[in-house]
Amino acid sequence: MKKPTNLLILIAVLAAILLSCNQQSNSGGDQKMTAFIDDLMGKMTLEEKLGQLNLPASGDIITGAGSNNNITEKIKEGKVGGLFNIKSAEKIRAVQQIAVEQSRLKIPLLFGMDVIHGYQTVFPIPLGMSCSWDMSLIEKSARIASQEASADGICWTFSPMVDIARDPRWGRVSEGSGEDTYLGSQIAQAMVKGYQGDDLTKNNTILACVKHFALYGAAEAGRDYNTTDMSRIRMYNEYLPPYKAAIDAGAGSVMASFNEIDGIPATGNKWLLTDLLHNQWGFNGFVVTDYTGILEMVDHGMGNLKEVSALALKAGVDMDMVADGFLGTLKESLDEGKVTQQEIDQACRRILEAKYKLGLFDDPYRYCDVNRAKSEVFTPENRQAAREIAAQTFVLLKNDKQILPLLNKKTIALVGPLADNRENMPGTWSVAGDFAKSVSLLDGLKNAVGTEANIIYAKGTNVVGDPQLDARISIFGKPTKWDNRSQKQMIAEAVAAARKSDVVIAAVGESAEMSGECASRSDISLPENQKELLEALLATGKPVVMVLFTGRPLTINWEKANVPAILNVWFGGTEAGDAIADVLLGKVNPSGKLSSTFPQNVGQIPLYYNHKNTGRPLPEGKWFSKFRSNYLDVSNDPLFPFGFGLSYTTFDYKNLKLSDSSLTATGELKVSVDLTNSGNYDGAEVVQLYIRDMVGSVTRPVKELKGFQKVFLKKGETRTIEFSLTEKDLRFYNSDLKFVSEPGDFKVFVGTSSAQTLEAGFILK
Ligand code: BGC
Asked: N or C: which terminus of the chain carries fewer CB neighbours within 10 A?
């Protein structure tokens, strides 16, 4: 063997210094933490290090393949880094005790859970939350979720889900914040702040996990887990910013997505998990796979379990959820030189750092205080907050002749498959909720009207007409309560109830698990049997209010044309029924605005407001024009545009003014508009500001949201609403992926939705 030259020795020494600097910076400069972890890792065997990278499921909630045999034994042997989806402080304390009393190095476990939109007090599904456009409420919901989850043993949540999604066929649109990059980024930050607070070591804050990194929402054809393929420029401008916003807000962990990016599954994608995430964005937390993400790379065609586990580690994955790939194969890969000790150490260090930051080494039971669990979970205050928040997420889509709010109605017919269905109110991914304790719409209306009105309830129809489909939509927990009576019988009962009433409330739509994971639909209309019910109710001549439960935008063209009032309530959480009653009866004036476009039909998908212009745009006001970008059989218009939502009152926009006709690189442009509440109710309006960059070195969207304010105005009140724009707001990624602004003409739009705005222009100098 040749002796190493002095130069080689020098290079090796320099590399070691650089590496240790990098490790120090990874630990956020916390010398004490680094010293502690250095010392601990000095005592760890290879098996124990690999153990830290292992995240088996608890067995309570299983969403994929994979096993979790002998967890207790593995914990004792130091072969488990954390567990997820175990519920209750008692259970978690008992498992933690095994780790800290019976394993050699007594390293505490991380306990994760899908606390997606609340813990036991469940808030509306994230898509609904985003329609509140209220960042303080969104942060508050995450704060309460964190408070409750941490009281019950959880220190890590697999949230926020910030995947931009423009295809409502994809069931997981329900778990995200809709189609818009700017709104999605604001929400991502608010959620991280809510979960993590300003101090992770507090016993009521938990570690956030941004998911699903990345582009999971762009699955082809809206089919879950499907391939994604996208240009870098689109990624950078449209899909990546919400993940980055969450990381900039300090999110401590990231979950790799199931899909591939540039032909390499995210779980094994070094460009994504190391070059972009750590090196470009400066992320210093850890990366966990999604459920069996490593194992799934075998089916992606990336090699056998040993090969894909090595690929994942080298790409930048630190923790293996359920696949057993790291624990089972990395030792052999190390022996064969396929992975390095340094790569294993780095992953192990990142997991230990997270535990350290959570304060688990000081007190492994910090999050398992049984008394806190009794007094801080599902409290009346939290439920009241959930009720108030839910009412802010409902979107009034139609209200002809001011049918709503319902005033002085003596007899109300409440019909529909979602009317008396507590279990479905929390919506998808509400794993800690106690569904039986949710408030159904029937409960809520009864609570609200007391003895002042008579409510006649009839189910009217099932959620879907096909029993086999009904079985498929009930697999993940929430029963649809299939009724064996015939459709004719059920409709007849509903019609009889309607005939005896002053008004009919039809609680229709999807059941909770018709959206969410693995709940893609190729037809996103209301099931035929429910339409039949609506037709029969309308035929009675009674006023019909449609209360629409859904986890995604739906193609409700016929309903829009025929039903006089439509209130979209998503899935409002455990307090849904009371919150819906508050809005129906006028205690709360609805103010939600859509965060995703409702298409007219599936053929228009993907349909989103901030599209490009093309070289052959359809002239404004036209339905069709030959040799223009349009369809023969449907207009380009959405059914309901992004940002749309009515109120019981009306708002007028006047006097859009800019403080100047130009903006300089260091200057500020003030944009103001006079907003008047011109109707008969006090109410809140989300004032939206969009821009358009008229000429660019790359094509720019026809409109881009750049600001919004939710303001409350008394009836008759006028207020001047002011926004400020700077050069930074006009930046975008150019074809070299540089984040720049380009001088030239801009338009600015302010209004009540993406489709109804006032317009002005300025020049960026
Ligand atoms: C989902 C994730 C979730 C994980 C753990 C997966 O099936 O894609 O969103 O966090 O399961 O429950």
From this structure: N
Q: What is the CATH number of domain 386-595?
A: 3.40.50.1700
Q: Fold for 208-216+238-357, please state it.
A: TIM Barrel (3.20.20)
Q: Any idea which fold 651-764 has?
A: Immunoglobulin-like (2.60.40)
Residues contacting 115, CB < 8 A, separation 6+: 145, 146, 149, 154, 157, 158, 159, 206, 432
Ligand 1 atom 8 nearest Cα: 290
Mutate to test the pocket of ligand 1, among 517, 518, 520 (most ligand atoms within 8 A of CB): 517
Per domain, the residue ranges of the chain are 55-113, 208-216+238-357, 386-595, 651-764
Give the predicted TM-score (pTM) of the model: 0.95
Residue with tokens 């962990």: 253
Greatest CA separation found in the chain? Answer: 98
Q: Which residue has the tokens 């894909």?
A: 308
Q: Where are the beta strands (DSSP E) in 336-407?
A: 395-399
Pairing mode of beta strands 744-753, 683-693: antiparallel
Does position 15 have pLDDT exceeding 60, yes or no?
no
Model confidence band, residue 29 (pLDDT cutoffs 50, 70, 90): low
How far apart are the CA of 166 and the centre of ligand 1, in A?
20
**Does ligand 1 lie within 6 Å of residue 525's CB atom?**
no
Q: Please report, for residues 49, 332, 765, the alpha-carbon distance to residue 537 in angstroms, rounded to integers and kept in the order given.
A: 64, 67, 60
Residue 703, Cβ neighbours under 10 Å: how many? 20
C-alpha span between 517 and 475 (Å, rounded): 11
Instruction: Look at residues 226, 236, 251, 114 and name the one whose alpha carbon lies nearest to residue 164.
Output: 236
Report whether residue 291 contacts ligand 1, using a CB cutoff of 6 Å: yes
Confidence of residue 321 (pLDDT cuts 50, 70, 90): very high
What's the first-to-final CA gap in the chain, in angstroms? 65
